[in-house]
Amino acid sequence: MAVKGMNLWSVCCLVLYFVAAVLAGRDFYKILGVSKSASVRDIKKAYRKLALQLHPDRNPDDPTAADKFADLGSAYEVLSDEGKRKQYDAYGEDGLKEGHHGSHSDIFSSFFGDFGFTFGGNRQGQQDRNIPRGNDIVLDLEVTLEEVYSGNFVEVVRNKPVAKEAPGKRKCNCRQEMRTTQLGPGRFQMSQEVVCDECPNIKLVNEERTLEVEIEQGVRDETEYPFIGEGEPHIDGEPGDLRFRIKVMKHPVFERRGDDLYTNVTISLVEALVGFEMDITHLDGHKVHIVRDKITKPGARLWKKGEGLPNFDNNNIRGSLIVSFDVEFPEIQLNDNQKEGVRGILKQASVQKVYNGLQGY
Amino acid sequence: MVLIYALRGFIKSFLVVLLWSNCEGRESEFNYVTCGSLVKLLNTRHNVRLHSHDVKYGSGSGQQSVTGVESADDANSYWRIRGKPNGTCQRGVPIQCGQAIRITHMTTGRNLHTHHFSSPLSNNQEVSAFGENGEGDDLDVWRVQCDGSIWERDKMVRFKHVGTDAFLSVTGEQYGNPIRGQREVHGMGTANHNNYWKAMEGVFIQPSQEPLRHHHEEL
């Protein structure tokens, strides 16, 4: 009996050790699905995408959902902080001794707002219609084309008034009611009276928190990113939303049409005739190489597939870069000899075609 | 057996405690008003917030009125801090003391504006909200006056109009219906404690890093 007990004990010890080892060593990079060299932005992007998928409210049938979501929050918290990430990289989860700066719901709500999921992320609760809402706030967020190409995160500090309970009562739901008073037998008087209910007293206290707005790759102009509950409070109800409206700014080099980018290049007459080689620096710094060895006509267009913007719905699909060429003529006057030389080289007969070039334009 | 389960539970909670102990309240270290931010401006002398709405002045220019309100939860008190027309004001960059800015009303898209008209209650210089979709004219530009080099959120600043040199002020006169209780906001020539304003509630944009420069090789 004792021997069996001891074997059981050692098995339990082994299991205990295994459990401890497993607990001590979560692979945060794997949880987020990022490489060890991922940037903070990659980590934020990964968290935001996975948090939406793994939130327990989204997975009511999965018993492990809460744990997975908690793991995700821990992974984000460690890897998004430079100091903690260094410690984690060196010593693993065991080596982390510092504390956290917010609960998992705090991290989630900094990406989606306070009520990110309570109403299905879209305020579709049944009680929704009867609860008064505070005002919405819309902030135009100006983004550059570089940010649309590579993506970015904008941190904002939201300082907002929050309704807090205060001692005492206040009047609420005030309304006009008709009151009938009897002045005497058969004589009545109707008057209007303001009638109020009694509600707990509310005072407004300013609170501050950080929100993370993602500029997703390929985002379209006027796209809105709502943060539920981060708008203005309502004394008798719930707060409105804060919405960031993306405004893509004009770019000096590239013009956006959907997922395609348009740009213009002026070349010299010599280059147009004899060919040339050049690089166009793209929005993220990489170079697009262009080689021409034939004649390039003014207005000619070069189509570079895959060099446009990433598609918003599928970042792996890219539009094209369309390069239009125009030609700059040299500021010289040719003497008679040079004119003969040009006629000899180009061997082009005189054209002199007269036509209406403004048809319909 | 029970002892084993208890021990496992203890180790698990010990590890969790080790990881999540020392809760630090995270403070925002960034205390400046930046370009593109949304802000409510409080007049510190009269405790009212700069406000506008779709109500026009009945006198003076007849443009959209600008007032001071006591409530702290009205979305019509939000103003967006933007650069001057044709100027560069990069998103998230702190506003310098002395910098020329435009202050655009969030809900109506009109700019804080003043001109040589008399204000209805005190006969000072009328301050209105002017323009469409954030575009008005040259009289929409104000200079932020503060001590130090950057507009800090918890410091009082003055707004001096570029063009008329008037300071954005409140001296306490109150309107009657339909905007009962709201205070008159006007321009005054002298700098005094009536023209101090402080950034209160809002959405303060932090500076972003430049998007990553990738150097992938295409085969």
Automatic annotation (TrEMBL), chain A:
As a co-chaperone for HSPA5 it is required for proper folding, trafficking or degradation of proteins. Binds directly to both unfolded proteins that are substrates for ERAD and nascent unfolded peptide chains, but dissociates from the HSPA5-unfolded protein complex before folding is completed. May help recruiting HSPA5 and other chaperones to the substrate. Stimulates HSPA5 ATPase activity. It is necessary for maturation and correct trafficking of PKD1. It comes from the Eukaryota. One of its GO terms (cellular component) is endoplasmic reticulum. GO terms for molecular function: misfolded protein binding; unfolded protein binding. It holds the Pfam family DnaJ. SMART domains: DnaJ. Keywords: Glycoprotein, Signal. InterPro entries: DnaJ-B11-like, DnaJ_C, DnaJ_domain, DnaJ_domain_CS, HSP40/DnaJ_pept-bd, J_dom_sf. CDD domains: DnaJ, DnaJ_C. One of its GO terms (biological process) is protein folding. This is DnaJ homolog subfamily B member 11. Residues 1-24 form the signal peptide.
TrEMBL record, chain B:
It is found in: Secreted. Residues 1-25 form the signal peptide. InterPro entries: MIR_dom_sf (IPR036300), MIR_motif (IPR016093). GO terms for cellular component: endoplasmic reticulum; extracellular region; protein-containing complex. Keywords: Repeat, Signal. Coiled coil: none annotated. It holds the Pfam family MIR. Residues 30-84, 92-147, 148-202 form the MIR domain. This is MIR domain-containing protein. It comes from Coregonus suidteri. The lineage of its organism: Eukaryota, Metazoa, Chordata, Craniata, Vertebrata.
